[in-house]
Amino acid sequence: MKLETQLLSLQERLQDAVKVTYTALENEGEGYPFATGYSRSAMEGVIEDLGKMMDQMNNAQTIDF
Hints:
- The chain is mainly alpha-helical and about 60 residues long.
- The chain has helices at about 5-20, 30-60.
- The longest helix is centred in the C-terminal third of the chain and has 30 residues, at about 30-60.
């Protein structure tokens, strides 16, 4: 997957989490506890994916002498 596509996916995941937080009170049965869990899960997923992307970038780089 291209870097740009991966970054767009991460951006969309975070944008969705922000939307869920803003609309938490409007959704009966969900509210802030749901929004908190959803947002935390999104942030943890983004952190994990960024770590994997950084590992891939570091492993792909070669040093030319």
